[in-house]
């Protein structure tokens, strides 16, 4: 009897090869996909998706590509340890050209003409770069230049960069500030929490034809999460090994003994996300983050305060979908209504092609640099912007003044 017959499965539920049929839409993955989809309807769509090894980025990209309509032309570049010339050749090859033995200026001309031609034919062009953490700064600068190709009406190339967390660190380098100004949306895919991990395992078993939802006993899920850290690829490895252990022992369910046997077989230790050191580092990070928040948004409805949130430098998405940083449950607010971009100069609000628009006072705006105290209207809700840097500065001035007054009083007392 085979492994699959033993557990009454039609196919392997925990294969490591990416398969869109098995994709589990956690809140994070759904949001990352929504960001990718935004490149289609935003003329200047430029999205960066990062995540740990095994977090599901490649499967997500495959699912996104499988749903593209016929008017979308795309290129996927996965080999990223390239020079800028080799990168351009790789892109053109994906679009069906034979660009070898061409000078760089000729490659750029070929690509430019291709993009304009596709635009004229009503096609939208998307460039997807996987494993983008390996790109050199020269290649990233080339991508910035490509993102600027435009007709007299709009830009003609949408771009998605996907990679490991190092990509995020690279892009935040001062040398790539111009590139980051082009990036419209960024999202980092973190590990699954305990509930999501359980749903993920049961989802894959169901897709594989598993009729018995109790194949993995209740007590094993906490152990699986402790050793996998909620990383999908590690979950797959541990679950598949546990099934093999159960099969070898002629058991029809996976219990604690099988999971621990799998852990021993793999020679794993508890995942770093479940150690005391990780918790301490996270707490330090949270304290630092609290001190570095620069933007405060108060959400009001009919004059009543709904929520107050603070954010560091970066992008904040506002909308009706629960996966947004600022979630507003209202039929007048679009799923991804607007974005707030906090930078060294303050905060900018930009409409993300919402149905009902963004207003500052009576004036509808597409992109607007906010001033401290500005009130933004989204349907029947209002967002009140506070520049926390000004607030911190004012507090420091007050403290300095109080200290000066204390010093003066002590001198008078003497």
What's the structural blueprint in terms of helices and strands?
Blueprint: H1 3-7, H2 27-41, E1 46-51, H3 57-66, E2 72-77, H4 84-94, H5 104-120, E3 124-129, H6 137-147, E4 157-163, H7 165-171, H8 177-182, E5 185-189, H9 194-207, H10 220-228, H11 232-248, H12 256-266, H13 276-292, E6 295-301, E7 304-311, E8 314-319, E9 326-327, E10 338-343, E11 346-351, E12 358-360, E13 363-365, E14 367-369, E15 375-378, E16 381-387, H14 388-413
Parallel strand pairs: 1-4, 1-5, 2-3, 3-4, 8-9
Antiparallel strand pairs: 6-7, 6-16, 8-10, 10-11, 11-14, 12-13, 12-15, 15-16
Please tag this protein with its features.
single chain; alpha/beta; 5-stranded parallel β-sheet; 43% helix; globular
Describe this structure in words.
With 414 residues, the protein is α/β, with parallel strands linked by helices. The protein is 43% helix and 21% strand. The chain is built from 14 helices and 16 strands. It has helices spanning 3-7, 27-41, 57-66, 84-94, 104-120, 137-147, 165-171, 177-182, 194-207, 220-228, 232-248, 256-266, 276-292, 388-413; strands spanning 46-51, 72-77, 124-129, 157-163, 185-189, 295-301, 304-311, 314-319, 326-327, 338-343, 346-351, 358-360, 363-365, 367-369, 375-378, 381-387. The strands form three sheets. It has a six-stranded antiparallel β-sheet. It has a five-stranded parallel β-sheet with strand order 2-3-4-1-5, with helices on both faces. It starts with a helix and ends with a helix. The relative contact order is 0.10.
């Amino acid at each position: 009897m085979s492994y699959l017959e033993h557990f009454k499965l039609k196919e392997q539920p925990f294969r490591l090869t990416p398969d869109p049929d098995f994709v589990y839409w956690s809140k994070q993955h759904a949001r990352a996909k929504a960001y990718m989809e935004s490149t289609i309807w935003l003329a200047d769509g430029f999205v960066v998706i990062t995540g740990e090894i095994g977090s599901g980025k490649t499967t997500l990209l495959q699912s996104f590509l499988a749903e593209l309509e016929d008017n979308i032309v795309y290129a996927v570049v996965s080999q990223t340890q390239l020079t800028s010339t080799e990168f351009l050749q790789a892109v053109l090859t994906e679009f069906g050209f034979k660009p070898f033995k061409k000078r760089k200026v000729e490659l750029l001309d070929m690509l430019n003409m291709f993009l304009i031609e596709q635009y004229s034919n009503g096609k939208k062009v998307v460039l997807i770069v996987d494993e983008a953490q390996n790109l050199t700064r020269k290649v990233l600068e080339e991508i910035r230049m490509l993102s600027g190709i435009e007709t007299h009406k709009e830009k003609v190339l949408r771009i998605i960069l996907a990679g490991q967390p190092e990509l995020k660190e690279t892009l935040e380098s001062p040398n790539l500030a111009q590139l980051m100004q082009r990036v419209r949306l960024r999202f980092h895919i973190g590990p699954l929490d305990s509930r999501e991990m359980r749903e993920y395992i049961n989802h894959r078993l169901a897709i594989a034809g598993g009729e018995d939802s109790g194949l993995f006993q209740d007590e094993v899920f906490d152990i699986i999460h402790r050793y996998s850290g909620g990383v999908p690829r590690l979950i797959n490895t541990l679950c598949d090994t546990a099934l093999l252990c159960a099969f070898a022992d002629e058991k029809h369910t996976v219990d604690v003994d099988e999971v621990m046997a799998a852990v021993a077989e793999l020679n794993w230790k508890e995942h770093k996300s479940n150690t005391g050191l990780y918790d301490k580092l996270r707490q330090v990070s949270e304290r630092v983050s609290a001190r570095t928040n620069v933007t405060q948004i108060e959400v009001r409805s009919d004059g009543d305060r709904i929520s107050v949130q603070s954010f560091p430098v970066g992008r904040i998405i506002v909308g009706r979908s629960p996966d947004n940083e600022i979630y507003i449950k209202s039929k007048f607010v679009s799923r991804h209504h607007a974005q707030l971009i906090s930078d060294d100069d303050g905060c900018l609000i930009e409409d993300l092609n919402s149905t009902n628009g963004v207003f500052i006072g009576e004036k509808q705006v597409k992109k607007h640099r906010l001033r401290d105290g500005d009130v933004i209207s989204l349907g029947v809700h209002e967002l009140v912007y506070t520049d926390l840097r000004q607030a911190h500065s004012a507090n420091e001035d007050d403290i300095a003044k109080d200290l000066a007054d204390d010093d003066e009083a002590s001198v008078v007392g003497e």
